[in-house]
Amino acid sequence: MGEKPIKLLVVDDQNIVRKGICALLKQVDDIDVVGEASNGEEAIAQAKTLNPDVILMDLVMPKMDGITAIERITVLQPHIRIMALTSFVAEDKVFPAIKAGAMGYLLKDSDPKALVTAIRKVNYGEPFLHPTVAKMMLQELGQPAKQPLTPDPLTEREEDVVRLVARGLSNRQIADQLIIGEATVRTHVGNILSKLHLANRVQATLYALRTGLTSLDEIDGNNDQ
User: Fold this and answer.
1) Is residue 222 part of a domain?
2) Are 210 and 134 in a shared domain?
3) pTM metric for this prediction
4) Could you list the pLDDT tens digit for every one of the 225 residues in the chain?
């Protein structure tokens, strides 16, 4: 038997957009659209009732915006992966969404294949940043740092792991590439996040970009897969 379909909740205040996304994704075999919501309050309620694996979250909505909903769902149900899906690429939307706990950030004008790829990656806890967003965040962070950003620097093996995390590889793929156990990869990832005081793999990706451990070209190439 194959893996269970990804349970997906779609949140967007525009009915046409939301219905269109749902219709598109219902044609994908490994994605099960379990519910819809039109604002942040509904998203929190639906997340509690449906317990989805992934939530596609619009950011600008009435009653409660997506960023607030991301923050609250991340606290209440931290196992749920959330991806921001929006028309906006402004700094006051991107950075708060990532800080709130979003595992990915995709623009609504993206290719449908990119949307499906993003959902799959985020479901496995892998970061997914639209190239425009990644470039903007890198510009905000500045040029690659020459000095470590932590008083407790990463080991050479941890640098190998964070580099592969930034390229969007799963723990299993990292284990296969480095010829180590998957449990060892999980330990390394936990140590990396702890050392760098980071919340998730998206923030680890930004660290890798900031320090020059990887490049936007490498990340974009993996996102296209």
Assistant:
1) no
2) no
3) 0.69
4) 457 899 999 999 999 989 999 999 999 999 999 999 999 999 999 999 999 999 999 988 988 999 999 999 998 998 999 998 888 666 667 778 877 888 888 888 888 888 998 899 889 887 787 777 766 665 655 544 444 455 578 889 999 999 888 887 778 889 999 999 999 998 998 888 888 877 677 778 778 877 778 776 666 555 555
Task: Give DSSP secondary structure letters for the chain.
Answer: --PPPEEEEEE-S-HHHHHHHHHHHTTSTTEEEEEEESSHHHHHHHHHHH--SEEEE-SS-SSS-HHHHHHHHHHH-TTSEEEEEES---HHHHHHHHHHT-SEEEETTS-HHHHHHHHHHHHTT--EE-HHHHHHHHHHH-SPPSS-SSSSPPPHHHHHHHHHHHTT--HHHHHHHHTS-HHHHHHHHHHHHHHHT-SSHHHHHHHHHHTTSS-HHHHHHHHT-
Do 132 and 158 belong to one domain? no
Number of domains in the chain: 2
Domain stop point among 103, 118, 138:
138
Identify the domain containing residue 158 by its residue range. 143-217
